[in-house]
Design brief:
91% helix, single chain
Length: 127
């Protein structure tokens, strides 16, 4: 029974507080505008339920398509990252082979510097 009295007191206090706040002219005017807006919106929804339903379905479809697209993009990126992980050891091996093939060449110092840059760039890309 105490809960019931508390709830009644709470509702009564809210009603009295709301009524007292309406003594201010600016508050009354603001409430008048807000109540009209709310009434117009509710009456529009009541008069056009199919349009609202279609808008909700359309929005839900857009959200679903966006989620599917993001999922596909993540799968694509994950695949490319996996490919890079597989290719990096192969690239290092090719660089080592190329280095050894050109080590006897007269421009071996220049080639060695270029190959070192490639290896450093590959290592930085993997970090």
């Amino acid at each position: 029974m105490g809960k019931n009295f508390f709830l009644r007191g709470l509702l009564f206090g809210a009603a009295v507080g709301g009524a007292l706040s309406l003594l201010d002219k600016q508050t009354r005017e603001a409430m008048k505008v807000n109540v009209k807006k709310a009434y117009n919106q509710v009456s529009y929804v009541v008069q056009h339920p199919r349009e609202i339903t279609e808008n909700v379905k359309e929005t839900a479809g857009k959200i679903k398509n966006t989620i599917e697209q993001v999922s596909e993009d993540i799968s694509y990126i994950t695949g490319k990252v996996d490919e890079l992980r597989e290719l990096t050891p192969q690239v290092k091996e090719i660089v080592k082979d190329t280095k050894s093939a050109f080590s006897n060449h007269e421009d071996s110092a220049l080639i060695e510097d270029l190959l070192k840059e490639v290896v450093v760039e590959e290592e930085n890309a993997n970090k």
